[in-house]
Amino acid sequence: MRRHQRGLTLLEFALVVVVVGLLMWLAMTKILRLEADVERVNMQRTVAALNSALAMEFAERVVNGRLGTVPEMAGTNPMDWLAQVPGTYLGTLGPAEAGAVPEGRWYYDAQQGLLVYRVAHTGRFESGVEGVPRARFRVEVVEHPRDGSPQGVRLVAAELFIWK
Question: Which UniProt keywords are present, listed alphabetically (predicted)?
Answer without folding.
Answer: Membrane, Transmembrane, Transmembrane helix
